[in-house]
Amino acid sequence: MFLSNHQNALLDALLIATTCGRFCYFLTRASVFTKPIVSKLLMSLQMFPVYRIRDGWSNLSNNNPIFETCTGLLKNNEAVAIFPEGSHNLKRTVRPLSKGFTRIVFDTLEKYPELDLQLVPIGLNFKHAETFGDSCSIFYGNILSAKAYHNEDRNQSVVKLKYDVHNEICQLTTHIESKDYENTLRRLKELNADFLDPKSVNICIKNNFQPCEYKKAKKLSTVKSFLKFLLIINLIVPYSIWKLLIEPKITEIEFVSTFRFAIAITLVPIWILAITIILASVAGFQLAVIYLIFVLGLALFAVKA
User: Fold this and answer.
1) What residue ranges in 7-142 does DSSP mark as E strands?
2) Could you tell me what percentage of the chain is helix, strand and coil, using 3-state DSSP and rounding each to the nearest 5?
3) Residues 143 and 29 in one domain
């Protein structure tokens, strides 16, 4: 079972799915399954809805078959990924964990006491999650044996497991205490802290910012700005759809990167392919190939430069 902090909506699941080395089933908050088309898409990606108290007490019983499905998957040595904070938030802090994942753990062990269920904490770290292009680091922590927490006092086991998982995740991502969050974050940004290296950032916070030495932030170069401008011009239609039609309708900032990524892997390739075909038919195949190589190279340099 993979247990991760949750900052950047569906991108978090994608990052885990592409780096964990296992085919995962994901538990996702039920509120994103409200639209039939979205629900079918998420289900096709092996994502299951989980209901929380805020979704209504009457809906909590809908979790029973989902949790039983997870138990069966774990028994068959499948991997299940859960975001135990219960919701996403771009704040650089690990929020209190819900009991949902502990219920799955202990229900599974009660049904299959000999199962060697392993728990893997994960820390996701984004540099600037709401901007393009961003960088991310992901760290997999020490494996916890679920059986080590299984004893006769289930309440005590739940508390201990939640504490240890929370503590492990806090070491894998930047964790700023809520009591002085804004001031601490401001100090870290002034120091140009490397949020892709949570270990050094957490040490910096623990030592009251002394000593904390980071490289000065690089200003956006004229060349990179020009490359991004050229990229926007070449992708003017999908870019306009994103800026004018889609981005203004996003109510949760955590979903900005997710929808932007969706545009990048759907409308952008379609647009580039359409222009390439038009050029091939009007100006010749050779020019179309040159354009295709140019746009792909431009995109690479604009993001990575």
Assistant:
1) 24-29, 47-50, 79-82, 118-126, 136-140
2) 60, 10, 30
3) yes
